[in-house]
Structures are given as C-alpha cells and as structure tokens.
Amino acid sequence: MDIVIIGNGITGITAALRLRQKQPDWNIAVISGESTFHYSRPALMYIFMGHETYQETKPYPDSFWAEQRIELLRDWVTGIDTEAASIELKNSGTRRYDKLLIATGSKPNMFGWPGQELAGVQGFYGLQDLALLYENVKTTRDAVIVGGGLIGLELGEMLHSVGVHVTFLIREANYWSNVLPLEESKMVVRALERGGFKAIYSTSLQEIVDDGNGRCCAVLTDKGERIETQFVGLTAGVSPRIELFEETPIETGRGVLVDSSLRTNVHNVFAAGDCAEHKRPGQPRNLLEQVWYTGKYQGEVAADVMAGEEHSYQPGIWHNSAKFLELEYQTYGRVNMGDSGTSDLYWEHPDGERSIRIVHKGGRVVGFNLMGIRFRHKVCEAWLKDERKLEDVLNDLHAAAFDPEFFPDYVAALKAQSIRAYVK
Amino acid sequence: MSSQLFEYEFDEEALGFGKPEPQVTLAKPTGLTRLFQGITLLGSILLLAQIAGSAFTGTWIGFLIGPGLLTLGSALYFWSSMKDRPPGINHDGIRYNGWLARGGGGYLLALLLTGLYVLIYWFPQYLGHSAEGNPTGLVRVVQAPALLLTGGPAGRWFLYGVLYSFVMLAMGVRMWMKYRHNRYEKLRTLSVLFFQFVFAWTLPNLLVKWGQPYMELNGVWPLKQDYLWPTKVSELWNGDASLGPVMIVWAGLIALVGTPVLTYFYGKRWYCSWVCGCGGLAETLGDPWRQLSDKSERALKIEHITIYSVLGIVLLVTGVLWVDHLAGGIFPENFGGALKHYYGFAIGSVFSGVVGVGFYPILGSRVWCRFGCPQAAILGILQRFFSRFRITTNGGQCISCGNCSTYCEMGIDVRAYAQKGENIVRASCVGCGVCAAACPRGVLKLENGSTHLERL
Ligand SMILES: Cc1cc2nc3c(=O)[nH]c(=O)nc-3n(C[C@H](O)[C@H](O)[C@H](O)COP(=O)(O)OP(=O)(O)OC[C@H]3O[C@@H](n4cnc5c(N)ncnc54)[C@H](O)[C@@H]3O)c2cc1C
Ligand code: SF4
C-alpha cells in the first residue's frame, strides 16, 4: 500500500506517524514543498527573534524519520490525476498513490490591494516568507502591518525586537475584537502601547505606494492618511490552500470539502487540517478550523480512516492560547461567539494586566477567557462538557488554577469579587 | 506575490537564518546604564592595579574599590539595562549572539574560565597564593575580608569563595531581573544566594575562626565526597572541636534522611536549584548559556553512562575507605590516600570545576550536574521512582514550539512530552522552572502531587 501525504505540517505529520503505528508495512511518503523536515510553524517567529535556531523548531530529530520508515520528499506537487491515482511533482516526475492525504494548510489572504505585488510587501506564513523577510528587512526602518490578528502581532513583535518601528493598521476599533471581548482587547491595546508599538484602529489599507522602482514606500489608508514605510506586512487572516485542486474532480468550497470521516468526494483521497472544509449537513455553515491542535486531531482521524478504521471527526470543546508580547492568553469553550442569552463574570486585576472571565448561560458555564493567568485545560474541558453550574465551578475554581507555584492566588480574588456581586 | 511561494527555492538547512539586519540605529544605552558600565570598568581597572601591587592591596578600601565596585557596577548594570522592559522572559537575539551561541566570544570566555580554574587548582602561586601565609597579587586583594572572616591570611580557597559568591551576587541580580515576573524564580534566586553567602561562604569561614572544622553546611555527601569519608568523620567525631560531632550528625542527617524525605515531597529541586552551591552558580553565572545543553539522544546516552559511573566510583571509593579504615591492613599502605587523591583530582577538580564551570559557554550551565554529580544521581533516582514531584502538561495547548526544550539546562527534550500531553518525570530534572516560565502557551507546571504513584 502506497500512502502519499501532501504537506509536512502538523496535520500531515501527525497522520504519517499514526499511520505508521497502525500499519507497520505500508509505504508512507510525505511530500512538502516548504521544507524537508517538519518544523513548528508557530515557532517561526522565534527563529527571527533569536530565541531558537531553525533546528530547534523541529519537534523530532532528523534521524527520527528514517527510524520510522517515513519517506520525506521536499518537492512541490503541481498536479493531481485522480483517474490514474498519481501526482505530478515539480522536480521529480510523477508518483502513484493508493491513498492520498491532502494537508496543504493555508496561505495568507490577499484582498487585491493596489500595490500588494510590490517589493517589500509580504505575508507571513512559512519558511519562504521568513527568508523573504530577512531580505526585506535589510532596507527597512519603519514597517506597517495590516491586520489585527495573531500572525500580524507576531510579525510586529519580530520586527520590533530588532529595532524596526512598527505601525499596525487595524480595521476594528480595538485589537482582535472579533475574537476578544472588549476588556481583554483593551488590555492588549495597552500592552502594545507600553511595548512601544503604534497602532491605528478603525482604519483600513487603501493602497500601497510604489517608490518608482517597484518597491513600496508608503501606504494610504481609507482615512486619507499617508504613512511612509519601507515594509508592508499583509496579515489579514489566512485561507485554505486549494489552488492545486481547482481543476481536479476533488470538490472544493472555501477549502477541500470533506465529510466527517475526512473523505473527499474522490475515492481514496482524504483531506485534513487547515485546508479542509468540513461539511455539516443541517447546519448553516461548513466548518473551517485553522489552528494547531485541530490539525493534530484531524491528522489522527484521517490516519485512522485511511488505515481502515471507522472514526468520525467530532470537534470537541474549543480551546486556544496565544501570547501578546508579555501577555498570555488562554480560552476554553464559547467566549464572545455571538451566542445569545449569555452573561459574564469578569474579574480584572487592578494592574490591568490579568483577568478571568467566566461566561455562563442560564446558570451553566459555557466558556473561560484568561489573560495573564493560566488555567488547566482538562479541568475546564470537563466542566464545559458537563455544562457545570456556575456556583459549583466557582466553588471548585482552584482545581483549574495552573499558574506556577508561589504565584498570587488570583482565583481567590475572583471568588471574593463574585461573592460580592452574586450573593446579595 | 502568491506565486513567490512556488518560485522561491532555497535550502532551509543551509540557510541558517542568522541575525536580521534592518536599517535601524539601535537605541543607545541610557545614561544610567552607561554610568554603571563605567563603574564596572573602574572597578576592573582598580582591581588590576591592585593585582599589580599597590598600597591599597589587601586593605578594606582596596577590596571595596576593586572587587566591590566591580560587583556593584555589574549588578547595577544588569538592573538598569533590564528595568525599562516590561517584566517577562526576554530571549531576544540569544541564538545568534556569538558570546552566547558558541561563537568566538563564547570560546574566549570558556578559555578564561577554565584558565582561572587551572590556576586555582594547580598553579595558585600565579594568583599570589603563598603557603607561608603572605599572599600577593589577586589573593592579597581579598586579605581584608579573610582576616575578618577566618582570622587568618587569605589563601587560594578564600579567594575562590569570594569570587564564587560575588559573581553569584552580580549574576543573581541579573537572574532576578530576567525572571522578575515569576515568583518561583525570584524566591529561588534569593534562596541560592542565601545558601551561598551564609551556608557555603561566611559560616564555614567563621567556623574556622572559632576554632571549628571547615564545613560547607549546604554540602552533602557524595557531592562533597569527603563529608562521609572516614578521615573526616573520625577527625570531626574524635577531634577537639566542640562542634565536630554536631557536624557529623548534620552531614549524616542531610545525606541519609533529609535527602530521601525532602526529595519525596518536593523532588530533587529542593537541593539542586534551591540549596546547592554548584547549582546556584549554574543558575546565576551559567544562566546565559543554559540553551547550549545538548538535547540529542547521544548526549542522553553519555549522560547515563557518566553520571552513574561517577556514582558507582564514589560509592566504591567510600566503601573501600571505610573497609580500609575499619579492617585495616587489607589494602597496601597509602592506597586509601591515593584513592582520595585521584578521586579529588579527576572528579572534584577536573570534572566539577574545570569542565563543569569552565565549559559553561560551550556545553551549557549544568554539565557537571547532568553528567557528573553523584549527589544529583542519587536525588535523580529518588525523584524518578519515589517522589511526588513532576511537571504536568496542559492538555492540548502545546504548539511544539520548542522553547521549553531549548532553554532546559539539563538537556531534557521537554517538548517531546508536552506535545503528547504526558507528564515529565525525569531523573535529571532539577526543577529550575524555566521551561514553564519560557513556554509561550502556559503548558507546563511544576507540581508536587499528592502521591508518588500517579505521576505518568
Ligand atoms: C506565524 C503563524 C503562527 C501561528 N501560531 C499558532 C498558534 O500559536 N497556535 C495555533 O493553534 N495555531 C497557530 N498557527 C496556525 C497553525 O500553524 C496552523 O493551523 C497549522 O500549521 C496547520 O497545519 P497544517 O499541517 O494543516 O498545514 P501547514 O502547517 O500549513 O502545512 C502545510 C504544508 O503543505 C505544504 N504544501 C502546500 N501545498 C503544497 C504543494 N502543492 N506541494 C507540496 N507541498 C505543499 C506547505 O508548504 C506546508 O509545509 C500559526 C500560523 C502561523 C502562520
Ligand atoms: S514551550 Fe510550551 S508550547 Fe512550546 S513546545 Fe514547550 S510546552 Fe509546548
């Protein structure tokens, strides 16, 4: 049995390792154009900032893959022939498969801004972008970053760490306010200010100005402002990377369409991770999940199904985490997702740099949002699964605390406040 | 632009991704920072002048304007250069800084450090050590505190104690500032400084002054191999010094009772990263190089061989010495003495000193603790099998970024556990807590569980 996996991101790699466990004799090949070895995409920033070497961002030693008998091929897939069950590679001809897993991930969104093709303008997604950034930064003193999301902030932090003056252009009135509740969003806004960043809110990019030599020299905003810059980072989200499949029988929508077993419409072709769009019959919208842990989980499910087992993908309780400069963020369950009938219990430290938010609906807890404080995933997940009563959660809240030893007891502070607020 | 993704080909392995070079002029150090750099420089010059010989050499004034200013200046420098950044670990630039990433600067520092150890151990006369008690040069610079603390002239070991403690003080300020967002780290910094200044440096010297035997009260056999060797034991037990028997009881208690009990409740960290002098130096002076510890499988194999060999050797030597002492005459005359000498030379001086500390800038800060220390070996076995301590990982939050593994001074591949959601129960973990502090996703927590059974 010949398995071919396109993409060595967390999804493709998780699937390959799991398949190896389930099927010791199958041939497994992982083909990826970006790099030979799997590395941690979220760690890209640490290479540029000098926290880690490229080597250190690899979760497994290079020698590991041969031991696992997983073939790694660094090449771009340029075509797929589903009739012949073969793929075409940029440098190494064609290759047959028995089962194919598509795990091509995402690409940065480009909204057709005038000037987006100029030199000095780039997105930030992979090693190619990192290499390009090293080139671009050589002529950079000031940078404009378009988009107020996680990747944009990381790119800003990277540039700032080497002394570049960074200005964010953020469409919303506050940082990442489509995801963060207002208080938390403002906390990040303060952190950015304190860190020496400039951020312009409620403002969009209109045009990137050519300096006459095909290189960017300024941006124009929808407020008519002109900002001189030698670098423009375009980080307005990502979308599934699916150009490759557009002329094939493989069905695509926003991403590669899959059912709950992660099968595409074509026999023996599967898709998982960032690039997959999950059909959800009976629900208004299909599901795109574009984070690390969902890629990992989907990779496992895809491997099980490819190995011949029945396994259906069930998105669990949502969780995520990030770090905005020094500010840590964790979220569990449903926070700020537009649900109706929810109320929040919110505690913020007087220093304005840490907070706990417990979202509840009808007396049952549905979500947690933490800034500058760590909670225990397993405990939160169990509570959210059982839709535990707010009262009980408050009583047991110390079980969720995950801050290092000797840290101040913020949970107690929240409890003290909530008793004041709720026990009348 | 999107087509670039396909066309931009390079060899990511060869490329290396070094230091970015933007068109910026970096912010100049503040006036305060420059003032403290100046004080440090002044202290160094005054120290060098005194080594060359001056009227101040050996006086309190000389001590204060030389080593004193040097320590003060550098401690204040660390404070002022970090105080304006928001608290939080800052590892910017470390992996492409030659001083910290095995560049020329790193090798130069390693050479200087090893050189210093070679001089102290085998050529103390070049430092001004004098067997007759009339020191010159660098040893003489610390004469005033020696007279105060020990009641006698300074020797090479007193010099070593001063260097050790004052370096730890200045670098301790750096450690405090670097980890000041984290109480665990702050308390640990205070703890290692306290044990060094009180237990390892002042008290042992005062003991000598008060006519008692020299003993570092935070030293434990078999790290301080001779503390339970027959010569020391009988000297303390039968000697004239009134505190001798107390010391023996103390040494025996911490080695045989304190070690297993405390390790059961808190893991080996109670000693290795809160109390131990070697650990204290590693955490302060060694901290800038912690990322250099080797994470490879090969290094792990070597670690297992060497650390348990040293443990075997020290157990054997201790056993032989006791047999020789109690039974007498089984071994040729001087056999015990030779054994002690060679152990002290190979393990005590070369391994723990020259390699252990001298190679900080090449092999990372815990070379001795990881590959050599027999005390760490014992504590590690206890921790692995009979302790409540473990590092728990936070469910699915790990993004495999590798910060934890990179900054583990013991070379543990923390990420390998974290990305699988497994707890970390490893003999070598000294519980420094830096993985948990450096993790950008709040994945790791050092914990003492309620029993030793459900840890994995
Ligand atoms: C800078 C950055 C930071 C992030 N930080 C976080 C975070 O902190 N937490 C989090 O949860 N998520 C984070 N994410 C998102 C997360 O990295 C992605 O969700 C995850 O990497 C998706 O994994 P994947 O395997 O599905 O796809 P990818 O990681 O994108 O891997 C796809 C691979 O397929 C290759 N490929 C694509 N097309 C072809 C082709 N035609 N031929 C050959 N190879 C091809 C690509 O080169 C790529 O290597 C971050 C993303 C970025 C860009
Ligand atoms: S530092 Fe944290 S997120 Fe990164 S690999 Fe380690 S445990 Fe995982």
Question: What does it look like?
Answer:
The complex is a heterodimer of chains A (424) and B (456). Chain A has helices at residues 10-22, 44-48, 64-67, 127-137, 150-161, 182-194, 292-306, 377-386, 390-396, 410-422, and strands at residues 2-6, 27-32, 70-74, 77-81, 86-89, 94-96, 99-102, 106-108, 121-122, 142-146, 165-169, 198-200, 205-210, 216-221, 226-228, 231-234, 238-240, 256-258, 269-271, 276-278, 287-288, 319-324, 327-333, 342-348, 355-361, 364-371. With 424 residues, chain A is α/β, with parallel strands linked by helices. Chain A folds into three domains: 2-107 and 239-306, FAD/NAD(P)-binding domain; 121-236, FAD/NAD(P)-binding domain (3-Layer(bba) Sandwich), CATH 3.50.50; 319-423, Enolase-like, domain 1, CATH 3.30.390.30. In chain A, helix 1 packs parallel to helix 7. The longest helix of chain A has 15 residues, at 292-306. Chain A is globular and about 70 Å long. The N and C termini of chain A lie far apart (68 Å). The model of chain A has no long low-confidence stretch (mean pLDDT 96). Chain B has helices spanning 4-7, 12-15, 31-52, 60-82, 104-122, 137-141, 143-150, 156-178, 183-209, 230-238, 244-266, 269-272, 277-284, 297-327, 335-355, 360-363, 367-371, 374-385, 403-406, 414-418, 434-438, and strands spanning 389-393, 444-448. Chain B is an all-alpha fold. In chain B, strands 1-2 form a two-stranded antiparallel sheet. Among the domains of chain B are: 31-85 and 123-213, no CATH class; 388-448, Alpha-Beta Plaits, CATH 3.30.70. Chain B has 21 helices and two strands. Helices cover 58% and strands 2% of the residues of chain B. In chain B, helix 4 (60-82) packs parallel to helix 8 (156-178), helix 8 (156-178) packs across helix 13 and helix 14 (297-327) packs across helix 18. Classes of the chains: A alpha/beta (424), B mainly alpha (456). The interface between A and B is large, with 78 and 61 residues. The structure holds flavin-adenine dinucleotide (FAD) and iron/sulfur cluster. Iron/sulfur cluster (SF4) is lined by residues 398-404, 414-415, 418, 439, 441, 443-444 of chain B.
